[in-house]
What does this fold into?
Amino acid sequence: MNEYDLLLHWFSTRPHGEASAVLVGDACAALGQRANELQGNNRQSYWRYHFLDPLYRLGHVEPVGRDKWAVLPPTVLWLGGKRRDGEVYIYGARSRMLQEQLQKAWRQQFIVVPQDNGPALWKWVGTRADAAELARSIHSELYNERGDILLAALPGLTEAVRRLRDWQLPATGARWEFFQVTSSPSGGVSGRWVLLSGSHSLLPGVYRTMKQYPATWVHVSVASDGQSRLARLLDPQNPDHRQVALWLELARKCRLCLRYEATTRTLMVPDLRVPLPVLVDRALRLASGTCPTVVTHDSQWYLIFANIGRRRACQAARVLGLPLETIHG
It folds into this structure.
């Protein structure tokens, strides 16, 4: 049982499965010490992200209200489509007692698959009728896995930003930073925050205030007249707004693409050290129930998502506004 498993079990023992952000931060910092991974970084916010984010992106936990998190009740997803036989993944609250109950009742049909960068996958294999019985036995229902439908319902990043709240433009000379995106001839992509000075024109992109908590983030774009600028607020209570805006700029300014391996059903997404928008990321993880692995290819780091059908890959490319390169064999 790794640190991600321990955090999920800890959530499951909390009253109502809930914990404040402060308590979660304390728990994650303790897990970092347990794993002997501090390596000079003892910031609580870092460890909260390191251990909590995989649980969130897989769908085990969700934010509730302000500065609070909660584990989902046990949730059973069917991946067999309309077929009689298939498999399910079990998300949400778990305990050693529940694991022993499932192993005793279903024996080899219930499989615990450990992973290094996230909590173990609880997988079960059998008929849909038996899957429904399993769900009832843990006081749940059987749901179809619909990550591809989720992706199909999402707008592209440009449209998603356009729907955000209008805001004031950043003032040049004030304490604002601009997210500057650069790409190298070898294909590498990087982004860094640069101070906005009075001599800089207001370029399209992402801006944030300095020395202010919480920071104000805005996205600036060119208006329909081709000259003036529009600003939209990136809600500080919704970090996904920032990820949508940052990915929009990365896709707009760099030569990026997704790579789909048809034979192995894997999707390669550039790893740019900027988290994917949560709903895109979760729709890809739901296909395998696991976190992506990281590999390097042609001097570029990629996240590898498993068990991805071509339709899901195409929808991810559409939402991110990136071309999809298909590889056969």
About this structure: Residues 183 and 189 are 4 Å apart (CA to CA). The mean pLDDT is 90. Residues 44-58 form the longest helix (15 residues).
